[in-house]
## 1
Amino acid sequence: MDTRTLSRLAVLASAALLVAGTGCTAETVQGRPGASGLRDAYFPKAGNGGYQVEHYGLDLGYDPADGVLRGRAVITARAEQGLSSFNLDFSGLKVERVAVQGAGARFNRTGTELTVRPADDLAAGEVFRTEVVYSGRPKPHKDPDGSTEGWIRLDGGAVAVGEPVGSMTWFPGNHHPSDKAAYDVVLIVPKGYEAVSNGRLRSRTDTGDGRTAFAWHSPEPVASYLVTAAVGTFRVTEGRTPSGVPLYSAVAPGEEAQSAPALGRLAEMTEWGAARFGPYPFSAGGAIVLPAGSLEYALETQTRPVFPGAPTEDLVLHELAHQWFGNSVSPASWKDMWLNEGFATYAEWLWAEDHGGPTAEQRFDAFLAGDTAVDPAADSDWDAFAPASPPGPEDISGNPVYHRGAMVLHRIRQEAGDAAFSALLRGWAAERRHGNASTADFTAYAEKQTGLDLRQVWDVWLYGKDSPR
Ligand code: ZN
């Protein structure tokens, strides 16, 4: 008997004593339903209340020929309250079986909510395992901004990208960035295909029935929108950064030559990032390059960003910078996206500044002047809204979140000076490493760290309704 069972028995025993004392025959552990959403201002149904996930084990069989996914998710979570039922976010696909702590559980589905009712209520603090067996052809999710996310079938393969809520199309989970967990993802595909996910490749096994199983392991916490799976006939290259981070990149045939210049600098960029922002936060790196046109955007999927075709150097740098800002330090809610995009954009400015391009000051001035010779986005609607309060869910990846977000950081640099600003970026990455942070957390930290009153910067650049032009 393991300690978990022992402690559960102890809970049962004490509850039984209480019941015996009152002569009533109620349940031994009294739970209540966990919330069906976390009331995120932009995606209110995303995530669920009453528990936090510690680990996802995903075993997925996929056949590119028919597009059918067969999945088994084992979710290890800790109850934060007594639970009579709890929700997982899951969209489409057929749920065949749900078990909690090994016992069959009742479940029902409404919209993107899968409600699970365990045979026995769960006690507050209890660590419990939920198993969901499912199958079907995943249906991609339409983002409010018109783009497509989730499990996306491609010519001769598939890719999964989850920002902000697409991951619910291919595995059940607590799909909000405030609940990060470790992952083990096993992808089983027909022989001849490569299957790539986040972290380290633990094993690549011939299953004996004409398929290959790829076992991927992510020990550091991952927000579920950053989990990926890519199936295709990729060319794989492996390497190592000078400080020893293993790199594993998969490139679609036909994209190798064009990808080589930018991907060839990934190791150097990772070292540069470590010098600028502090130690690289993860135990693996690399990239996934899909056939050109596979997606409308690139995504900083953890350790191994996804690119729709050969990326430019700036794009590789941008997605790499997200490993510190977004992936290690993750937004507390979707309102805080500028903490991802403003920082990753500013990283591009810094990379250029450190490599003979325009300085960040020149870039900042170019945006104010609308000078596209310095930055092609300078005449975009970068000032259309305040980066810390996008008008709606369709705006969380809007231009102001990126460019005006980067300008917020440059305004801090102008006030604090180069040395204090560099220390602030490093300090922030260290302070919230592998965690979450809100905009208010950042502004408080920046003022504490620099000793400056930055209210004017926040009011005008971060929250201000008017254009700062
Ligand atoms: Zn980005």
Note: The CA atoms of residues 292 and 309 lie 4 Å apart.
## 2
Amino acid sequence: SREIRLASRPFGEPDEGTFALVETQVPEPGAGQILVRNTWMSVDPYMRTRMNAGESYIPPFEVGAPLEGSAIGEVVASEADTIPVGAAVSHFAGWREYAVLDAAHVEVIDVENVRPQDYLGALGTTGLTAYLAVTEIAPVREGDVVFVSAAAGAVGSVAGQLARKFNAARVIGSAGGPEKTRKLTETFGFDAAIDYRAGSVAEQLAELAPEGIDVYIDNVGGDHLEAAIESLNDHGKVAMVGMISTYNATEPSPAPRNLPTAQTKRLTLRGLVISDHFDRFPEYIETAAPLLADGSLVTEETIVDGLENAPSALLGLLRGANTGKMLIRLTA
Ligand code: NDP
């Protein structure tokens, strides 16, 4: 069995020296435990923030310890009455090929009707994040103009489509490069797209939304947040979902430089930490599963094969190498 450990804390962009691929013994389950062979792992931007020292809403990764994250696997040995060998499970012991887990710390999943990797994407934390952003953190109302950043990514692509389903008048997305921006309008149903690499976000947003925007789903922070504050109408709302433009930064971002405008426009900027809302999963699944099944919620994924390629997948995610959900596929 192999696992990936944090070898050293990165300053700025991580590199291969940040990670160590280590051979380990396949662990044996004790009473009440199961042995899981992982089949899919989620790669998430917040994993970069856990590499820094210092307390956040989630404790930092420890140097020398395996990384962790959401994963799907198959039970290959069981000392727990409740979970048989062969069951598919969802859990949090990713970044390793085999994991021993307490039965209480895994969820048995239905892989007859749902693709296992969807539990890491549209039907997992990714989708729930998008759903809460547009329904609760910055609720979209009928007729709203909505702006979504990192819109070709996992959360952003779902958020844009859900905003539309919840009656937004127009949904504008931003992404890096012509291919992704084309995908926003052609695949994910956005009304208009901004290529933030091609020019100023503020100028492009002002041009595409001359009437202003009402809701901003912020996955990026920095210049995107500044542009949104400029374009938001009075009483507009921002869901602060993520700040990916800052995760590798070695200095605080100067943007947004226009925060005083948020006061004069009476804006609401509200942060989201999705683990506060896991009780909303059943309601979300009820909404999203039929949309996914009938094809009216379109998702994409970028699949990287092999545990050894997980570090470069994470580095790639932070540079925009993915469209939709970034996943690692593990084979026996
Ligand atoms: P994505 O699939 O969106 O992948 C990240 C994307 O971010 C990349 O593909 C890249 O797309 C974009 N990106 C990277 N750097 C920059 C930059 N400097 N400026 C603009 N865009 C950039 O990841 P997720 O959907 O998993 O996550 C999206 C956001 O949501 C992240 O900020 C993440 O931290 C946050 N999140 C927050 C949660 C919460 O509980 N609050 C839960 C889950 C996610 P491009 O090619 O377009 O640049």
Note: The chain has two domains: 2-121+299-329, 126-275.
